[in-house]
Each structure stands twice: as structure tokens, then as C-alpha cells.
């Protein structure tokens, strides 16, 4: 294939026998997906380089401030970090870890803290933590 070939030309170069063989077709598609995913692992929300700053403790806030602070902490925990790089963003990673622990403690020790207005922030944060994009790992380096 020449260097002037368009970017999806590799899939057009599949022979007729490969098109019939379902296994080959699946493995070709899988390889193409893996190549695409190499550059797609974005860890910060919206690619921001902002550093996390500690928020006040929930237990120290007044009851009127607690719900707003609870939602702010949930939003703060929506920022994802690359834990494969153990030296980058150490301060922000520690702030997030402490915030997640504080949220768990707050929810498990207080009644009525999960109110309807916080549902969307809770679902967003949990889904981001649960469905973290996979990082492509080159099998030859394992």
C-alpha cells in the first residue's frame, strides 16, 4: 500500500477469501479498533490541565452549605487521572482520593444526604469512575 493511500484503505485491501472468513474479518476489525484507541485515552475532563484544590470538609459546613458542597465534591471527582503515570498530578490525585473517601463516609454515616437534586451529579461521577476508557496495551511489551 502506498504512503498516499487514504486512511481506511487497509480495510479495502482485504482479499475475497478474508471477507468470507468471519474470524479474519473480526480480527481485522479488532486490530483497527486497537490502533484507533491508542491516542484516544483522555484522562482529564475536557482535556483541562487544571489542578484540583481541596474543598472544605462536609462535616465542617453548615447544613445549608452541605448539599452544595456535596455536589461540588461530586463534580470534582469527575476529573479522571492516568494512574499508570505514578509521578504526574500527585497533589490532585491525593485530593481526589481524599474527596472520594470523604464522600463515602458522609453518605454512609448521615441520613437523607442523597437528595433528588444530587442524582445527576452522582450518576455522572459513578459512571465516569466505572467506565474509564481502556488504554491500549501493546501485547509485545507484556
Automatic annotation (TrEMBL):
Alphabetized SUPFAM superfamilies for the sequence: ARM repeat
Biased composition (Basic residues): 26-36
Protein origin, superkingdom: Eukaryota
Disordered: region residues: 1-58
Alphabetical list of Pfam families matching this protein: B56
GO cellular component: cytosol; nucleus; protein phosphatase type 2A complex
Protein name: Protein phosphatase 2 regulatory subunit B'alpha
Organism of this sequence: Rousettus aegyptiacus
Amino acid at each position: 500500500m502506498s504512503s498516499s493511500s487514504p486512511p481506511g484503505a487497509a480495510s479495502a485491501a482485504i482479499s475475497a477469501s478474508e471477507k468470507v472468513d468471519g474470524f479474519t474479518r473480526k480480527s481485522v476489525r479488532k486490530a483497527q479498533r486497537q490502533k484507533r484507541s491508542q491516542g484516544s485515552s483522555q484522562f482529564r475532563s475536557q482535556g483541562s490541565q487544571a489542578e484540583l484544590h481541596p474543598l472544605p470538609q462536609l462535616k465542617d459546613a453548615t447544613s445549608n452549605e452541605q448539599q452544595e458542597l456535596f455536589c461540588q465534591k461530586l463534580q470534582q471527582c469527575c476529573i479522571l487521572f492516568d494512574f499508570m503515570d505514578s509521578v504526574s498530578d500527585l497533589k490532585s490525585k491525593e485530593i481526589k482520593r481524599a474527596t472520594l473517601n470523604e464522600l463515602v463516609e458522609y453518605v454512609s454515616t448521615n441520613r437523607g444526604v442523597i437528595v433528588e437534586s444530587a442524582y445527576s451529579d452522582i450518576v455522572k461521577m459513578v459512571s465516569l469512575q466505572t467506565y474509564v476508557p481502556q488504554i491500549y496495551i501493546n501485547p509485545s511489551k507484556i
